[in-house]
């Protein structure tokens, strides 16, 4: 795995075998739902290479648009966690942590992310 993938996946608050994805996502939804009043999984498959470029060019615009459109506004991104498939493991990350990391990588502030990638 590349350095960007390592840095991203260090943010994981839980993990499970990818083969158990449906059960694991349901379990995390239940756990996180108590704190976040109804939790949503945003699913993502990490590529084997060029993870940083993939996350910045492909994932970040779509994730910001999804969060802003669904009411899980930046910077808190309440109620959303990412289910990230990497190899045979499924990692769970809070959307807030992922957006903060990608904001840092991109050099864009939260306000700039909203303006550039939020709903038009």
Features:
52% helix, 5 helices, 4-stranded mixed beta sheet, alpha+beta, 120 residues
Write up this protein.
- The chain is α+β, with helices and mostly antiparallel strands.
- Helices cover 52% and strands 19% of the residues.
- It has helices at residues 3-9, 21-36, 51-70, 95-106, 110-117, and strands spanning 14-17, 40-45, 80-86, 89-94.
- It is globular and about 35 Å long.
Characterize the largest beta sheet: strand count, sense, and whether it forms a barrel: 4 strands, mixed
Q: What is the number of beta strands?
A: 4
SS field, number of helical segments: 5
Strand arrangement across the biggest beta sheet = 1-4-3-2
Mean pLDDT comes to 93
Radius of gyration: 14 Å
N-C termini distance: 35 Å
Output the helix-strand order.
HEHEHEEHH
